[in-house]
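Severity: low
Component: inverse-folding endpoint
Summary: output formatting inconsistent between runs
Steps to reproduce: submit the following structure tokens with default settings.
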């Protein structure tokens, strides 16, 4: 665990924040290059990235605080201490998706087309972000042999790299619009559901499941139905 990268006078650089920044710029840069190759304006990627970043952080922080409300009620200043870590992915994802849908609707752009373009790089950015979790010491695993904890942050990062590679392969195979985006939701939610069994920082609160498992199960079922619908639709029906 190495939460503080370095300190220069009054300036402190935290590993969690540094990895989030690195993830954002890396994912945005790769998505911009992909947009150029696809004939899509890189400005759309830039605007989407900034919108997703800020709305996602706000949504993720709010949901994280709500899940540990007793602590933050006693330590309200900690609500604003993002460098200390503490973002709930699904809360951020819901906020980011809602904001992006509104943006694409206003711009009259295809959700499937833009989503298929950028979602592999979202997974890549998440993989980098999980390294920040490892360095910060949050999102830790349950105890295993000899008192060590399962390195769930590293496991998650590796799985996200595999997910990124798979989604890039789907992109190159020219599947129906929307398949890449839906596949991300399907596979990420399944992986996160299973990873929660090794996590040591989340308690079962809904039907014997953690909050992330409960939301992940809903996302998985929704994406499974959406994928089946998309597969049986005629190829030309990609108006979403």
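Observed output (run 2 of 3):
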């Amino acid at each position: 665990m190495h939460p503080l990268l370095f300190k220069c006078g009054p300036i402190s650089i935290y590993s969690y924040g540094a990895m989030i920044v690195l993830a954002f710029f890396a994912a945005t840069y790769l998505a911009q290059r992909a947009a150029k190759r696809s004939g899509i304006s890189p400005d759309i990627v830039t605007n989407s990235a900034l919108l997703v970043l800020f709305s996602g952080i706000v949504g993720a922080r709010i949901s994280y605080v709500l899940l540990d409300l007793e602590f933050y009620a006693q330590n309200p200043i900690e609500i604003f201490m993002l460098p200390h870590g503490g973002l709930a992915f699904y809360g951020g994802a819901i906020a980011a998706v809602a904001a992006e849908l509104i943006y694409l609707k206003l711009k009259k752009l295809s959700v499937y087309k833009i989503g298929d373009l950028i979602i592999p790089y979202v997974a890549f950015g998440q993989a980098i972000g999980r390294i920040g979790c490892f360095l910060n010491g949050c999102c830790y695993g349950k105890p295993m042999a000899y008192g060590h904890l399962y390195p769930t942050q590293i496991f998650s990062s590796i799985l996200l790299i595999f997910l990124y590679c798979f989604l890039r392969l789907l992109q190159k195979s020219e599947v129906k619009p929307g398949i890449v985006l839906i596949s991300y939701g399907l596979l990420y939610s399944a992986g996160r559901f299973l990873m929660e069994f090794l996590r040591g920082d989340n308690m079962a609160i809904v039907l014997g499941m953690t909050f992330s498992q409960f939301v992940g199960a809903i996302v998985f079922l929704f994406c499974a139905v959406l994928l089946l619908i998309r597969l049986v639709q005629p190829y030309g029906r990609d108006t979403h």
